[in-house]
Amino acid sequence: MNPNNTIEMNKFDNLEQVVLYTEISNEQSIEIDEQIYELMRNAVRASLAFEGCEGEYEVDITLVDDMRIHELNNQYRQKDSATDVLSFPQWDDVPKSSNDFPTHIGDIVINIARAVEQAENFGHSLKREMVFLTVHSAFHLLGYDHELENERKIMRNCEETVLKYLDVTREEIV
Questions:
Q1: pLDDT at residue 153, as a whole number
Q2: Predicted confidence band at 106 (pLDDT cuts at 50, 70, 90)?
Q3: From CA 134, how far away is CA 24, in angstroms rounded?
Q4: In-domain check, residue 87
Q5: Please, which contacts does 154-163 make with residues 24 or more away whose CB atoms are closer than 8 Å?
Q6: Percent of the chain with pLDDT over 70
Q7: What is the pLDDT of residue 36?
Q8: CA atoms within 13 A on the CB side of 26
Q9: Number of folded domains in the chain?
Q10: Domain containing 89 — which CATH number?
Q11: Is the dihedral of CA 42, 47, 50, 55 positive or negative?
Q12: Is 170 part of a structural domain of the chain?
């Protein structure tokens, strides 16, 4: 095993110290398997652990259609188009979790129609696409961005490390 991989995997040693409360609301017509919901929860939790977070956190995930995400993208980002996922961070810097109540770090909105389309286009499963979009959005909630090339590389490395930890690979096909 590559020593760098060992170091990256050590970032998940605190996973048991991360408690996550997640409500997933499906506001569109495509049914999603409970196994995917569980992987999405694990993806957020692993992303928090990767960042060294410990304690109780809360993230809400909403699954929507093209029209709804288009409305949200226009309203909050002034982009008149649909997208695959939107992140609404609660904080600029995620605070340490309080002992009194979970720290709400933000909301994730995933466009299921776009996720299905991207899974087909990339030749992998919907499960892989949903988990990727969840991890991607979780890192946005944690303050990451990809506007600049160096930011994109850093964020992509974080995403790939979490996906590898979760054993969700690009090779996984439908």
A1: 95
A2: very high
A3: 11
A4: yes
A5: 158/47, 158/50, 159/132, 159/135, 161/8, 161/9, 161/11, 161/50, 162/43, 162/46, 162/47, 162/50, 162/135, 163/131, 163/132, 163/135
A6: 90
A7: 95
A8: 10
A9: 1
A10: 3.40.390.30
A11: negative
A12: no
What distance in Å separates the CA atoms of residue 173 and residue 170, rounded to the nearest whole number? 8
pLDDT tens track for 59-92: 999 999 999 999 999 999 999 999 999 999 998 8
How many residues belong to the chain? Answer: 174
Considering the entire predicted model, what is its pTM?
0.90
Long-range contacts of 89-97 (CB under 8 A, 24+ apart): 89/140, 89/141, 89/142, 89/143, 90/141, 92/143, 93/143, 94/51, 94/53, 94/141, 94/142, 94/143, 96/53, 96/54, 96/55, 97/53, 97/54, 97/55, 97/56, 97/57
Q: How far is CA 123 from CA 126, 161, 174, in A?
A: 9, 21, 7
Query: Does some domain include residue 169?
Result: no
Beta bridge partners of 60: 23, 107
Report the distance separating Cα 155 and Cα 168, nearest Å.
Answer: 17
Which residue range is the domain that position 53 belongs to?
3-164
Tokens standing for residue 83: 């997208």
81 falls within a domain? yes
